[in-house]
User: Which sequence fits this backbone?
């Protein structure tokens, strides 16, 4: 990594939280299309954001995961609900500072499912399904709360 690239990544790491950096990386992935004129810029930006995330994660404490004890609040802060949703095959599209897509819990043609990454929460305006990252995993995989916490901590 060159010193200029390191400086750019350090500036991003100093300015944004990990959640915000993950949103920026997602945004860069959406905009990095080979057929677009600014493809090189978005690839560079994505690389800088990923380096900033790595820098930030190295300086922050990891959630405490010991046999019989998991710091749920710290885990909730580190988990990325957008990435979890996309791992289940739900295609999300940026909508302001949030994301929206088709609800995985009922059939629909018009997106009514909103993901609020700043709060790590979701809400469907169609079926009123809502909750945090743990209730999402519980509902998607029909798990208990403990199993969902273990699944999220493994991500």
Assistant:
């Amino acid at each position: 990594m060159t010193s200029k690239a390191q400086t750019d990544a350090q500036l991003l790491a100093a300015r944004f939280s990990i959640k915000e950096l993950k949103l920026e990386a997602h945004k860069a992935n959406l905009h990095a299309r080979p057929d677009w004129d600014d493809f090189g810029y978005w690839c560079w930006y994505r690389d800088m954001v990923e380096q900033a995330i790595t820098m930030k994660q190295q300086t922050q404490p990891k959630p405490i995961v010991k046999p019989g004890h998991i710091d749920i609040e710290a885990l909730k802060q580190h988990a990325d609900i957008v990435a979890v949703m996309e791992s289940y095959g739900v295609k999300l599209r940026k909508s302001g500072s949030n994301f929206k897509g088709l609800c995985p819990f009922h059939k629909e043609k018009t997106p009514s499912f909103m993901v609020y990454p700043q709060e790590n929460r979701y809400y469907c305006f169609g079926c009123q399904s809502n909750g945090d990252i743990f209730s999402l995993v519980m509902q998607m995989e029909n798990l208990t709360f403990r199993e969902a916490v273990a699944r999220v901590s493994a991500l």
Notes: DSSP finds seven helices and seven strands in the chain. The first helix runs from residue 3 to 15. The beta strands are 65-66, 69-70, 92-95, 98-101, 113-116, 121-124, 130-132. The chain has two domains: 3-59, 65-154.
